């Protein structure tokens, strides 16, 4: 989990359809999915758009 309530970060490799799968899973679980990096106003530690890079190929 992250600092913001209910926020999670998933790191996956390039995968076609991952957004679709996340939408279906959360739909079945009855929860809301947002891909917004800052879904709640305020200065939340750890909440923001950041990019991870790998040095391995």
From TrEMBL:
GO terms for molecular function: ATP binding; glutamine synthetase activity. Keywords: ATP-binding, Ligase, Nucleotide-binding. GO terms for cellular component: cytoplasm. Residues 1-57 form the GS catalytic domain. Its EC number is 6.3.1.2. The keyword Nucleus does not apply. It is an enzyme of class 6 (ligase). One of its GO terms (biological process) is glutamine biosynthetic process. It comes from the Eukaryota. Homooctamer. Belongs to the glutamine synthetase family. This is glutamine synthetase. It comes from Ilex anomala.
